[in-house]
Amino acid sequence: MHPIVIALSILLALASGSPARADTGIPVDVELVLAVDVSRSMTPRELEIQRRGYAEAIVSDEVVNAIAGSGRGQVALMYVEWAGTYSQRVIVDWTLIGSRADAEAFAAKLTAEFDTALRRTSISGLIDYAAGRFDDNGFSGFRQVIDISGDGPNNEGRPVEPARDAAVAKGIIINGLPLMTQEGMGAQWHLDDLDLYYRDCVIGGPTAFVIPVLKWEHFPRAVRRKLVLELVGREPTEAGLPTPLRRPAQGYDCLIGEKIWDQMMGDWY
Question: How many Å apart are CA 144 and CA 77, to the nearest integer?
Answer without folding.
Answer: 10
